[in-house]
Design brief:
By secondary structure, this protein is an alpha+beta fold. The chain is built from four helices and 18 strands. A hairpin with a 4-residue loop joins strand 13 and strand 14.
Length: 272
């Protein structure tokens, strides 16, 4: 089975083209667990499968987390898949990508730089208490990708294991019925944010989170803490830039995520 390994700001993925390498749907969760394993597989945060479009998109993205659970969508994954789609002739410089969370528009900026329009939020709750913390809760798309945003100026001074346990506790908090990706954030300058995300399905911190960056920017823009125009999100794997439209009524939409993509290597695996 042929595959491509890519990453977007350190958020890494294994990509398989189901139109060339047929995979039975019921076998995908186990395939994701095997291929994404950090020591016994190719190693990745998630598995992405390119499939035929079911509606009016150029193609369909099926996304699975490293633990085999199906994800609604992935922002950095969508940016990577947009580059994959362009370089493999599946679509032009502007693409319509079908996902479980809805249609995502991808755009080629340069050879490695790609932008995607994330799904509009289905839920925005700027103040939801969870485990004693005031969190902003946002779901992107329908069904939505759940994100909790915790403003904590000293998060990067907390020992990593302690912060990880806090992220895990919040991720499973009853305040979030679907669970949540949990981002700890701090303002570092005008329109600049430093953040890290504990992702469900990976069950650990990742080097970057695209939908997390979109949710962070939407929340902080609505709170009046950033402009929402090319807001810089610095994550452990690199910088992402987000633009969002915020309305006086407390709603946000048209969230655009821009950042780098990288093709790590292409290969073939027989351990399936």
């Amino acid at each position: 089975m042929k595959f491509t390994k890519m990453h977007g700001a350190g958020n890494d993925f294994v990509i398989i083209n189901m139109m060339e390498e047929p995979v039975e749907i019921e076998k995908i969760p186990e395939l994701a667990r095997k291929l994404c394993h950090r020591r016994m597989g190719i190693s990745a945060d998630g598995l992405m499968l390119v499939d035929k479009a079911e509606k009016d998109g150029d193609y369909r993205l099926r996304f699975y987390n490293a633990d085999g659970s199906m994800g609604e969508m992935c922002g950095n994954g969508a940016r990577c898949i947009a580059r994959y789609g362009y370089e493999h002739g599946l679509a032009g410089e502007t693409q319509r990508i079908e996902t479980t969370a809805g249609l995502v528009i991808g755009e080629r900026i340069s050879e490695a730089l790609y932008k995607v329009r994330l799904n509009d939020p289905g839920i925005i709750d700027l103040h939801r208490e969870a485990e004693g913390f005031d969190c902003a809760y946002i779901e992107l798309g329908n069904p939505g990708i759940p994100h909790a945003v915790v403003i904590m100026d000293s998060w990067d001074e907390i020992p990593e294991n302690e912060l990880r346990e806090l992220g895990r506790r919040l991720r499973y908090s009853p305040a979030f019925p679907k669970g949540a990706n949990v981002s700890f954030v701090k303002l570092t300058g005008e329109n600049e944010i430093k953040a890290i995300t504990f992702e469900r399905g990976v069950e650990d911190f990742t080097l970057a989170c695209g939908t997390g960056s979109g949710s962070i920017t939407a929340a902080l823009t609505l709170m009046g803490k950033v402009s929402g125009i090319d807001t810089k999100i610095s994550m452990p794997g690199g910088d992402l830039f987000v633009t969002v439209k915020a309305e006086p009524c407390g709603w946000a939409h048209d969230i655009f995520l821009t950042g780098p993509t990288c093709i790590v290597f292409e290969g073939e695996t027989k351990e399936i």
